[in-house]
Amino acid sequence: MMPEEVPFSFQYSVYHTSKKPNTLSGDCYFAQEYEEHVLLSIADGLGSGMEARFAAEKAVKEIEKNAHCNNPLQLLKESNRTLHGSRGSVVGIAIIDWKHRKIDYAGVGNISCLIITPEKKKHYFISNPGFLNGRKFHAVERSLPFSRGDTIILFSDGIQLPDNWEYIVAGSLSTDIIMKRIVNEMIHVNDDATLIIGKWIHT
Ligand SMILES: [Mn+2]
After folding, report:
1. 112 CA distance to ligand 1 centroid (A)?
2. Which residue segment(s) compose the domain that 138 sits in?
């Protein structure tokens, strides 16, 4: 009998750019596959330049350090702790749980996260308003089903998806090709920008 444990694997692509060419982006991201979950996260540091970068990097490094934990709200809390005294950062963290076919998400500030099915049905996660800077914050962890063929999209406010994005994303293209088409057709706003697209594929 064929083993049923890993009928498909996760595939993702990242687009990451800075406001001005050859300068540090105030956005940072961390994406990694673990045995039982995949973690996708974006931090967008407040303001611009070095200080923004510093805060975003701190946030993301702390997420990376604790990534074995599969609880996005807990990761936000760890991340927040390290941001004390910094400019602050908005952060969004998605944990994709293959076993339970779901995604848990928690975010603070302007990071967008959504799931789209092959039938182009969209489900939006909601980030709580605010930002992390070491002080008390309010965030709620939310969970949505995520099954084969579904795509997750996580992005910072420097990304403006093209009008036809759902047609590009919902098909059966690889995330690399989807990403190329999206980047090709999107309006490039003058900001640091990060876009992560991920989906399950058959192995
Ligand atoms: Mn931004």
Report:
1. 11
2. 8-202
pLDDT of residue 72: 97
What protein residues have CB closer than 5 angstroms to ion ligand 1?
44, 157-158, 191
Q: For the chain, how many structural domains are there in total?
A: 1
Domain membership flag for residue 167: yes
Summarised one tens digit per residue, pLDDT across range 121-171 is 999 999 999 999 999 999 999 999 998 889 999 999 999 999 999 999 988
Task: Provide the pairing of β-strand 37-45 with 27-33.
Answer: antiparallel
Non-local CB neighbours of 140 within 8 Å, separated by 6+ positions? 73, 106, 126, 128
Distance 192 CA to ligand 1 centre (A): 5
Q: Do residues 37 and 94 touch, judged by C-beta distance below 8 A?
A: no
Please indicate, yes or no, if residue 93 is contained in any of the structural domains: yes
Q: Give the pLDDT score at 1.
A: 47
- The shares of helix, strand and coil residues in the chain, as percent rounded to the nearest 5, are 20, 35, 40
Residue 27 alpha carbon to ligand 1 centre in Å: 7
- Is pTM beyond 0.90? Reply is yes
Q: How many whole angstroms from 169 Cα to the centroid of ligand 1?
A: 23
Give the pLDDT band (50/70/90) at residue 48.
confident
